[in-house]
Every structure is written in structure tokens, then in C-alpha cells.
Write a structure and sequence with these properties.
Elements: E1 2-6, H1 10-22, E2 26-30, H2 33-42, E3 47-51, H3 59-68, E4 75-80, H4 84-92, E5 97-101, H5 105-118, E6 126-129, E7 132-135, E8 140-142, E9 147-149, H6 152-163, H7 171-179, H8 187-203, E10 208-213, E11 217-222
Parallel strand pairs: 1-2, 1-3, 3-4, 4-5
Antiparallel strand pairs: 6-7, 7-8, 8-9, 10-11
């Protein structure tokens, strides 16, 4: 499988290329959006990984131009600090998936594999678990008959849990992924928002629950 990877942070690019190469991918790495666009138009790739924040052209601009020119290669966007606005713009422009920074390499590789399996057939507007769904564009958490439009932080937390069903995420992981490295919020904030989401699920008569393991973390599971 041949991938195009666009990232302007050299150390990050080198680390990711090493991991991808180790897992038998062929990778062309570029460091700005203009170069990414040129490569994507000139070569045939199985998948494209674009960091949104790049010099010359950002990832959204590159993606928009590719789709306008009829390039349907699957695209995974890398977004900084889980910015919802970037995700929405990317999905609207035709991205197949996105992954917020910072990310674990295991999750990154899983997203790459999923992107390559989907090819041109999947647009991730809705995530499902049990009898509930989360709309990534409208922020609606729904059971099909009733829905809530989640506030930003509740949405981000719910999205992470739904994207990692069955995987336990620690309070520290969730704090970083939702509130960012430089937040002043404490771990108690995560507990509060977990409580909010549990009340939403109860109100929706959901057959899923946010399970907790002491000193391990939280996960979403069907009950």
C-alpha cells in the first residue's frame, strides 16, 4: 500500500514514517500543503494523510482542491487539540476520517487500516453504538426517536468514547484529548462530564453505558 503523508513537524514526520515503513507501507513524506497537493495530483496513492496546520496550503485547502479535481483517494486528517471546527470543515470537504493530536500510534495505525479498507465507500457522518448514534456534523446524540444536541465538551468526550468502544481510556487521556495539554482543568472535570453523559444515556433509554474500572479508566459498552 502506498501512502502520502503531509506533516511539517520534521520529528513527528520521521517518527510516523518509521512506524508506517515498519508496518510495510510505502510512504512519500512531504512537509507543506503545496507539495502535498502536487504529489497527490501526480501520483496514485492508496491513502493520503494530511495534517491540517501546514505552511503554504493547509490540509483543508489541499483536500478541497483534490475533491474538486475528482481525486477520490481516501483522506485521513490530523487535527490539533481536537478542534471540532476543523473536523466539520474536513468532513464537509470530503475527508474520510480524522484523528486529533496528540494520538497513540496504535490508534493511528488502526485509523490508517480502516481508511484503506473503506476506500471510496465511507463518509463518517454518524457513529453508532448499541441503540444510540452520534451525528458528527450536528452533534446530536440520538436513540432514533429522541435526541440531544450536545454542548461542545460533552460532544467531544462522547465522540472519543464512541470511537474507542471497548477500550478503556484513563481520566488523564480524556483530559488531554478533550481539554488539551495546557488546560487548567483537573481530573474532577472529566468525572463531572462523564456524569453528564451518563444522564443523557439514561434519558435516551440507551442500551449502552459508560463503564469504569478503578485506576484504569472509562469505556463505552453495550449492556
Amino acid at each position: 500500500m502506498k501512502l502520502l503523508y503531509a506533516e511539517d513537524e520534521i520529528s513527528m514526520s520521521e517518527a510516523v514514517v518509521d512506524i508506517l515503513t515498519y508496518h510495510k507501507y510505502i510512504v512519500d513524506a512531504v512537509c507543506d500543503g503545496e507539495e502535498a497537493l502536487n504529489y497527490a495530483l501526480a501520483e496514485q496513492y492508496d491513502g493520503i494523510i494530511l495534517d491540517i496546520m501546514m505552511p503554504k496550503k493547509n490540509g483543508i485547502e489541499v483536500l478541497k482542491t483534490l475533491r474538486q479535481k475528482g481525486v477520490n483517494t481516501p483522506v485521513l486528517l490530523l487535527t490539533a487539540k481536537a478542534e471540532i471546527e476543523d473536523r466539520i470543515a474536513g468532513l464537509d470537504m470530503g475527508a474520510d476520517d480524522y484523528l486529533p493530536k496528540p494520538f497513540a500510534m496504535g490508534e493511528f495505525l488502526a485509523r490508517v487500516r480502516a481508511m484503506l479498507r473503506r476506500k471510496e465507500t465511507f463518509t463518517p457522518n454518524i457513529i453508532k453504538c448499541g441503540n444510540i448514534s452520534l451525528n458528527l456534523q450536528s452533534y446530536e446524540l440520538s436513540n432514533g426517536n429522541q435526541s440531544f444536541v450536545l454542548p461542545k465538551l460533552e460532544y467531544q468526550l462522547m465522540e472519543i468514547l464512541m470511537l474507542n468502544q471497548g477500550i478503556y481510556l484513563s481520566s488523564e487521556d480524556l483530559l488531554v484529548k478533550v481539554w488539551g495539554y495546557d488546560t487548567d482543568a483537573g481530573l474532577g472535570t472529566v468525572w463531572v462530564y462523564i456524569s453528564y453523559l451518563r444522564k443523557r444515556l439514561t434519558a435516551l433509554n440507551a442500551n449502552v453505558a459508560i463503564a469504569a474500572k478503578r485506576n484504569v479508566g472509562y469505556t463505552l459498552e453495550v449492556v
